[in-house]
Amino acid sequence: MSLTIDRDRLLSEIDELASFSDAEAPAVTRIVFTPTDLKARAWVKGRCENAGLTVRQDAIGNTFARWNGSDPAAPVVGTGSHIDAIPNAGKFDGVVGVMGGLEAIRGLQQSGFRPRHSIELVIFTSEEPTRFGIGCLGSRLLSGSLSPEAARKLTENDGVTLDEVRRAAGFGSDLERVKLPGGYYEAFIELHIEQGPLLERQETPLGIVTKIAAPASLRILIEGSGGHAGGVLMPDRRDALCAAAELILAIESAARTSGALDTVATVGICEVFPGAVNSIPSRVRLSVDVRDTDLQRRDIVMRAIETTCDLISAKRQVSVHGELLNADAPADCAPAVVEALSQSCRKHELNSIPMVSRAYHDSLFIARIAPVAMLFIPCRNGYSHRPDEYAAPEDIVRGTLVLAETLAVLSS
Ligand code: GLV
Ligand code: MN
Ligand code: MN
Q1: Per-residue pLDDT tens for 190-232?
Q2: Is residue 359 within 6 Å of ligand 1 at its C-beta?
Q3: Which residues pair with 292 in a beta bridge?
Q4: How far apart (Å, rounded) are the C-alpha atoms in residues 41 and 39?
Q5: Which residue from 142, 219, 238, 320 lies 20 to 30 Å from 69 (Cα-Cα)?
Q6: Would the CB of 389 count as within 6 Å of ligand 1?
Q7: Whose CA is nearest to atom 5 of ligand 1?
């Protein structure tokens, strides 16, 4: 099998996909089920059909593009990632795994290889939590990690339900049918940019992920008392933003003092009401994201946040209400898939290192129903979730080549 990756086609497709965006280039914003996301999905679907793949979509919009193997009864070898992008993101997060996955399949087709197991590219719906508060909606439902009933209740901030939004986007069928049957996958591999600096620092082109960190997120609502910024005396104030400021610093400190670099916590959203320069903030909504490779350590931080909420509430006479959106367990990658990736790296004389993924991915949930591993490529300065996110063409091509090689081995 002589396997080649069409570098120009792959890079130009990554660029073209970036043009479906609600932000000015180089930033990419592509929120799930917006008109822009729907146009991007249609474009990707067209590329898959051009490659002769059979495309189906499920009720949450997960898109599967299948290259049929010679044994239709054999479990599927899967690959893929997501194309939704958080506000003001870059063009590689998720996209490398989707367009790289498609290019890997096309490379294998052109090499003359014929799989025994079907190879299926999946574009997961809403890996990013932007619209409904929790990430990995598609893979949570596919793996049975989120019940259809709980999914139907998810809402946007303005109260519109996921069910209404998906139906308006043209996905109206039964959510109960999204969960995959047991034994669906033989193996699953996700190619992704590292989103951290380690591969670049170690001058290593590829990382093979052995473990994916455990994410948790909270929404916290703080309610104090508003009023005139001149008239209300300082001793009489119950300023919700001052309470939030104290809480944010306590969250940072809880993560910093965990004793491990793998513990991270971020307050990424702080909405202040009413938001006027001469009005005391009466209400603040925070979003908190806590992660660790170790579940116990992460949960110590979660408990510290809870205790601090109570202390600040009592001290500042404000109400503090926390809503847990998700608290997921970490995932271990499957040794056999990790080994298959390592062997492919060796075959192509490419160095690789084992890594932990500190970002979460759909693979975190697919790992609950399938043997999974992930392949990381470097990204400049470790930048991700920002417009200057960058992966070098040669790294994208190397990752795609190793993915293709491994898909071939696993599907034979
Ligand atoms: C996924 O984008 C994450 O936040 O890790
Ligand atoms: Mn992301
Ligand atoms: Mn991603």
Answers
A1: 999 999 999 999 999 999 999 999 999 999 999 999 999 999 9
A2: yes
A3: 214
A4: 5
A5: 142
A6: no
A7: 359
364 C-alpha to ligand 2 centroid (Å): 13
- Residues of the chain within CATH 3.30.70.360 domain(s) are 215-327
Q: Please tell me the distance between residue 1's alpha carbon and the centre of ligand 2 in angstroms.
A: 34
Compute the distance from residue 385 Cα to the ligand 2 centre, in Å: 6
Q: Which residues, other chains included, contact 352 with Cβ-Cβ below 8 Å and sequence gap of 6+?
A: 204, 205, 206, 207, 208, 341, 342, 345
Q: Give the β-pairing of 214-223 and 283-292.
A: antiparallel
Q: Check if 162 has its Cβ closer than 6 Å to any atom of ligand 1.
A: no
Q: How far apart are alpha carbons 194 and 198 in whole angstroms?
A: 8
| CATH number, domain 7-213+331-411, options 3.20.20.80, 3.20.20.70, 3.40.630.10, 3.40.50.2300 | 3.40.630.10
Residue with CA closest to ligand 1 atom 2? 128
CATH class (in words) of the domain with range 215-327? alpha beta
In three-state secondary structure terms, 352 is strand
Q: Select from 348, 392, 355 the least CA-distant residue to 375.
A: 355
Model confidence over 344-370: pLDDT tens digits?
999 999 999 999 999 999 999 999 999
Please name the amino acid found at residue 342.
S
Q: What is the 269 CA–ligand 1 centroid distance (Å)?
A: 15
Q: What are phi and psi of 194, to 5 degrees?
A: -65, -35
What pTM value is reported for the model?
Answer: 0.95
143-174 per-position pLDDT tens digit? 999 999 999 999 997 889 999 999 999 999 99
What is the location of CATH 3.40.630.10 in the chain? 7-213+331-411
Does the pLDDT at position 290 exceed 90? yes
Token pair, residue 171, equals 């996905």
Strand partners, 221: 285, 321
124 CB less than 6 Å from ligand 1? no
Indicate the DSSP class of residue 241: H
